[in-house]
Every structure is written in C-alpha cells, then in structure tokens.
Amino acid sequence: MSPPTPGELPLERKVALLSGRSYTHTEAIDEAALPAITLLDGPNGLRRPGDSTEHIDPRRALPATCFPPAVAVASSWDAGVTARVGAAVGREARAFGAAVSLGPGVNIKRSPLCGRNFEYYSEDPLLAGVLAAAHVRALQEQGPGASVKHFAANNQETDRKNVSADVDERTLREIYLAAFERVVREARPATVMASYNRINGVHACENHWLLTEVLRDEWGFTGAVISDWGAVGDRVAALTAGLDLSMPGPDEDGDAEIVAAVRSGALDPAVVDRAAARVAALTRRAAPATGDADLDAHHELAVELAADSAVLLRNERNVLPLDGVRTVAVIGEFAAAPRFQGGGSGNVRATRVDAALDAMRTLAAARNATVAYAPGFSTDGGGDPAALRDEAVRAARAADVAVVFAGLPEAAEWEGTDRESLSLPDEQVELIRATAAAARRTVVVLSNGAVVSLEGWHDEVDAIVEGWLLGQGGGRALADILFGVVNPSGRLAETVPLRLQDHPSFLNFPGEQGHVRYGEGVLVGYRYFETAEVPVRYPFGHGLSYTAFETRDLRAVPTGPDTAEVSVTVANTGARTGKHVVQVYVATGAGPVRRPLRELRAFTKVELRPGESTTVEFALDRRAFAYYDVVLGAWAVAPGAYTVQIGENASTVVAESAVTLTGDLRDLPLSLDSPLADWLTHPAVGPDVVRELAAGRSEETVRQGMRTPEFRMMSSMPIRKFVKYHARGVSAGTLERLLERHGLGRGARG
Ligand code: BGC
C-alpha cells in the first residue's frame, strides 16, 4: 500500500509539518514517507551545527568554505561571480546534507548603518536582484533550495523584531520588493523567508497582502514561505496570511492552536492542506549527505572570487600595483589576522583563512622585494596605541611604500545591532595619518562590511582599496591586487557619502517608537544624491582599474511602445588586460510622478585585452522605463522622452542617447471628478477634450490658454466643476460619452 499523501494525513500530522522540530530541522512524517530536512544558514557559506541541532554555537560549528559575503560579491557587478558562489554553496550543501541554504539576503541598503549590510548586496534593486537570481539558480541546480530573505523591508537591525517600516506602495514596489520579485520570477527559489519586522503596521509573517497577494498571486511564487527564526507570534494569523513553515521548532502550543482553530471552524482546513503540501514538496530536496565537496578547490575559488570583488577607489600617481617596489611596510592587524566576514547567523567556520601578510611576503620574495610588518593597532584592547603607532611609523619611514590594513572590528558589524556612525576607530585614523605623514607612498586597504567614512585622511593617502569583507580567501586576493597579479575590477554597489548627514536616510533612521518612516521614498542611495546634487566621496558604480577603457558608438532604439534596444562599444585603451563594467542608466521626467535623476537599468562585465574592443547589447524591457502607478495599481510606462546613459558610475555619464516612447498609459482611469489637467493630458481622451473645449475655434487657442497662469490656477479643478462654471458649451453628458468611447466609462479617480 502506498503511503498517504500529505492531504490524507490526520490533521495533527499535517500540522506537524508546519513548524520545525529543532533549530535546523523540520519534522519527519514517517508514515507519509516525508523525511526531515535540514536548513542551514548561507548564503556565502554554510553554518554547520557541530554536535547539536539546537542553536548553533559558533565555537563548535563544523568547517565550511566562507566565500565572499554579499557586500563583496555585489561589488563584482558580475552575475557569473554570484552564480559560482551559489553553485559552490550548493555543492557543499549537498555534501553536508542540507536541503535548504538560508539565503541570499536581498534587502536594500537603505542606510549605511544597517548592521547586516554585509549580508546584503546593494542600494540598487536591479543590481541586488540580478546577482541574487544568479546565486539562486546556480545553487538550486545542485539540488538544494534557496531561501530568499528577509521578505520584506527589513532594512535595519534596531528594533528589528517589532519595528514597522512605514513605506508607500510605489517605494515598496520600485525599491524594496523589486529584487525579491526578480529572484522569484526568474530563479524560482524553493523558499522565501518572511522577515521579523512589520510593514505599514502588519508583521511580515502575518501580512496577507505581501505573502499571498503580491508573492503568490502576482509573482507566481509556488514554493514554501518560511518564517525568520522566531518571527511568528500568531501561528493561525501567519498561516492565514500565507506563511507555510514556522521556524525554528518545536512549537507544540502553536501547532495546537492551529488544530483548535480548524476544529472550531475559525480556520479553513484547506489553508492547512495547502501549507502542508508546500512543506511536503520541500522535503523532496532532502538527500543524504554525500560528503564529497572539494574544499581545496573551493578555497581557490574563494580567492578568485574575492579578487573580482575588491574595489580600487583611489590610485594617485599610479602607486598601485606595487611594481618595482623594493621595500614594503605592511601595517595593521588585519593584514595578519584578516577581518573577512560579519557576525551573527551568517557566520561561517572557515576551512582555512589566508592572511594578506603571508601572501604579500610570497609575492614580494618572488620580486626580490622585502616586507616588514607592524601591527599598528590592536582590536582587542591589548598594547599601547601610541607605541604601536610609533613602531608602524618607523616601519613606514624605512619603506618605499606603506600599506595600511584598516577597517572595522568584528564587534562593530553584527546581526541585531546597527552602527551609530560611519567612522573608523579613532586609533586607526590616527595610525593612517601618522603613516601617511611618514611614508613616501601610502596605500590603505579597508576591511569593513558596510560603508565607512574616508574623511579626515582620504587626501593624505595615495591609494585606497576597499576590500569589504572578502571571505576566507580575501587575504590572498588583496595581495594579488596590490602586486598587480590581478587587475582590480570591482565597482561600488553603494554610495560612499561625505557625511552621514548627507544620506537620504539620515533623518528617518532607525525610527522611533516602533516606526521607521521611509521618508525619502524612492530616492534611495544614488537616486537621491544624483537628484538632489549632493556631493559624495565616491558615487555608486565607482571603481578604478590598472588599465583604461573607452566607451563609444552608443545606440538606443525603441523596439515597441515601452521597450528599447541598446548597443555600445567599449575598448581597453590601456596596457593591461582588465575587466570593465558597462553601466546602463535611464533618465526621464516622463509621467505623473517624481523620477530619480537616473536609474540603473542594465549592466554587464566584460574582459578585454589591451587594444581589444567589444560591442555589448542590452534589451531594455518595459520595467527599464516604468514606474509604479499607485492610481492604476500597476506598472506603467509614461509617453515621453527617455535618455539612455552609459555611466562610468552613477554621477559620470560618458555617453547618452535619447529615445521617445509612446508608452502604455492609455487606459489611465478618468472620471468627472478628475482634475482638468488630467483630462487634457490624458493620452487617449486629451485630444478629444481639447477639441470639445475649442468649440469651433482653433485647437491651438485652447493649447495656448493651457499655458497661461489663469489656466494653471484652474488646472486642479475637477472637470465636472470646470465645465459648469467655465465652459458652458461642454456638458457633463458630452464628457461621459467621451469616456464611453474610450472604454473608460467606469474609471474613477477621486
Ligand atoms: C536571521 C536569519 C537566519 C536565521 C537562522 C535569524 O536570526 O535573521 O537570517 O537565517 O536566524 O539562523
């Protein structure tokens, strides 16, 4: 006899599927042949429990490869890089018997202070979404499932389990949901993880609009929605909203509440059946641990991907690479004891860790150069800061180049808390300045999981490499970049502001009294800095190379009312092979809403040898031109002028080409209560209204009138009143007939 299907199980057994058995496991339902599955934290490496399936003690965790975290791989601007991370984590998940890797995190970096920014990709939803989709696809090709998190608007750690992110719908759709949408539609993740916070007052885990109407009905998600760990307060409400699996477990009381709700008729049993079926489907990903991951190969991969991710921010007098240098003073504790990952659930017990100092010694030796080392500062409070600094300054003075490894201490970047400032620790700033004053040339290498301020020392140093947190191979990758074994190709996935006060989130982060107001709306990150012309230290998309690139022959041609095709040629005009990121932005003022000055709409990374050029093509889909129209409750492309721009970064445009789109806004709702201006500018009805108002005169007379201050005074008047008082020749009946003719008879706008 075949085992029962999940739907045939007794109610209690169905409900047992809906909460975990432990911190990392679901419940096995043996009689239905449904195994327990293991869910382990990712996404840049697996956090493997040691001898317990309960809360994971990092000291007893088992080793896994720590690949570069999201903050780093985002700076690669290369979906090939995130795909390779995803595939490798997938292979390790299979080897270690995990059915689900809990990641990637695609939350938008709304503020540089968010304590989990190291786990997130970008301030831009396209970049985050494209990179995450590649990770998920590659991971799932290996068998295990992904869990895209934290859905949604979980952009801070302060009060994270309770705070309500108060966000208008256009901003949610265009900024905070867009990366999730892309991943769900394009990569079909096995699970989505609902976040701790509330959204406009409703907990994400109990948010029917979010989990059912948007995620399933609109985006077509068919997998299981799981809760963030301990996020569910009311199991019945969560289940009703569309949450399937509450983690961790056990949660016998919650299970009993669900059973009681079904028995009392308060909960439709079909809701339980649906959720149980989704969790049962997830158990198909269970597989015995194969134990066969090639950890040596994965370490090499971790080095390679880290080298693709670091960003060369500044390189005055071409101090880098360290060609022909005889003596190098390596300064800073992070050179010997790398800071390579953030703290909290994403923390991985690395299989090994490469220190930049060792790798630099090896590379220097092969070039007959010498390396001296001074720790310069201590992150554990040991040592006298002045003595450490003096020792470093002596080493710097004696060398051709000083390379200072600075950054944030591990405790500064930890899940559960946000930072309070962008500053590096004071003793490190003093160390950098003292070194720069003494050394012939100074290079600073940064290790930090989120943006730090470069002010107070930036202009005193020759070069800055933003190494972010690069995973266990980061030390070697940095050495390869410093010595030119690798040509840096990272680009900033987030803006480096001059001051925290300049940041669009500044006045509304992290909120107060249980609410955080996303007052900057869609003007997040560079969208704000560029629109408001607020100067920054380094714009989104910035990154230097040891070679030079030229952009030419941009062509942008509409391919329909709301789409276009773009092609552009890039050439390597320098002397080294290098990788270049082609960044395509769209700028427009079209439509009834405020548009950011420009928005990233496509990108790709190309590798070119000296003298080589290539032509890249992009098909810009409807979304590349659209805004979310809250009146229509839909995405819309307004008719009008659009400029396709190739940006060296978000603030430097190197080529642009105009396109005119007819758009797809013809069915805008309209009623007699809509303002006169909406009628006159309506793409379908507008010309007819002008004709009616002209009443035999030339239409140009009406159009001229529309440009007068008197007209502007009346333009917000509902047309019903306008015709009553100012255009007696046009009746309400005429207007109604116009609406009928254009199929807008039932449209309404207050
Ligand atoms: C984190 C999640 C993580 C989960 C399981 C939570 O605290 O927010 O990102 O996947 O723990 O460890």
TrEMBL record:
GO terms for molecular function: hydrolase activity. Keywords: Hydrolase. This is Glycoside hydrolase family 3 C-terminal domain-containing protein. The lineage of its organism: Bacteria, Bacillati, Actinomycetota, Actinomycetes, Streptosporangiales. Residues 580-650 form the Fibronectin type III-like domain. It comes from the Bacteria. Coiled coil: none annotated. Pfam families: Fn3-like (PF14310), Glyco_hydro_3 (PF00933), Glyco_hydro_3_C (PF01915). It comes from Actinomadura sediminis. Belongs to the glycosyl hydrolase 3 family.
